[in-house]
Amino acid sequence: MKYHQINSALFVKNRRKFTAEMKPNSVAVFNSNDIYPVSADSTLPFAQHRDIFYLSGVDQEESILLLFPDAPYENQKEILFLKETNDHIAVWEGEKLSKERAFQVSGIRTVYWLQDFHKILNEMMTYADTMYINTNEHYRATVETETREARFVKWWKERYPAHNVAKSNPILQRIRSVKESEEIDLIQQACDITEKGFRRLLSFVKPNVTEYEIEAELIHEFIRNRSKGFAYTPIIASGNNANVLHYIENNQQCKADDLILLDVAAEYANYSSDMTRTIPVSGRYSERQKAVYNAVLRVKNEATKMLTPGTLWKQYHIEVGKIMTSELLGLGLIDKADVQNENPDWPAYKKYFMHGTSHHMGLDTHDYGLLHEPMKANMVFTVEPGIYIPAEGFGIRLEDNVVVQEKGEPFNLMRNIPIEVDEIESLMNS
User: Could you tell me the strand order of the sheet in which 276-280 lies?
Assistant: First the structure.
């Protein structure tokens, strides 16, 4: 890992929150992700399953966490299982967690090697009535590959058919969506790294630079600041490419007088940031570009104010739509007749702003959070309105990451990243 070690107190708190919601006399098991093969002996870089990381801080493959708060013995209440390390593995793959190091990372004292898992689980199941299985129930999830977690669930159901089954995900959706102060600090670090990358770009971008050269500048700055890299696949979309919402080819030349939509951000310690800025290739916005840009900025600023405790996500988006409608009328992109005759299921503004304004973020870029429940203090959201005008050859999106506060306006974790037209133009021409 590149990041500084996280204090294990965070993971101790996270486990307490989870076990407090478990049914009496129940066991929960969490598996690390697989290392996914590409071809021959090639693999994708390992990325830890966010749930086991959230509960233990363990950032290593072939790891298992077992929680049994009502276990008959103290040393059975929290158990980590790790791939056994040795000198040979250290030479070929680098250092893996020892039992002592695992305790330092997680705060869990009972650590076994992985080969003991089935024997110990069998003992735990003789005491327990219910098993918590960990399924992916995120509203955006599309899973076509059988995961290590899914294989375990299938095996467990066959091995222990007489036990009751409960789900971990509803508990995790709630507790992961409300961040501890340590988590907000880690997201802030990711945002600060993103800021460094963005500021680097403002002096780099010129006519005829390529989108992939911009990507290279960003990854350089992210990694040199202890990030593993991009929190998600970067979108570096010049000209009309910005009107493709998930444009990721990043292979075109940036032409004079065009805009570049940059949806790019760093991760830090597995925590995401999520930023979008739209900058002029030539260092100056045209009057039309500036008018649309400032309209998007006004929507973002007003939408941010609405992210307060008690707000319902669905109603929030309806209210943001009203603000966007007003701005589009002012820009001449829609007229009153468009609004009067609009389809309630697809309002007139959706022609130019077709995606949502906000989503939860944290360990995942689209993080856990139950959208039908009211917002709470210390939830972290993106705010990302956009206006996309293919007929005019550009699209503009602006995005910050904010923390819902108990009282007052949300706290902007990207408050130091340039966003005003004058500041961006000044930095690009200094």
Answer: 235-238, 259-263, 276-280
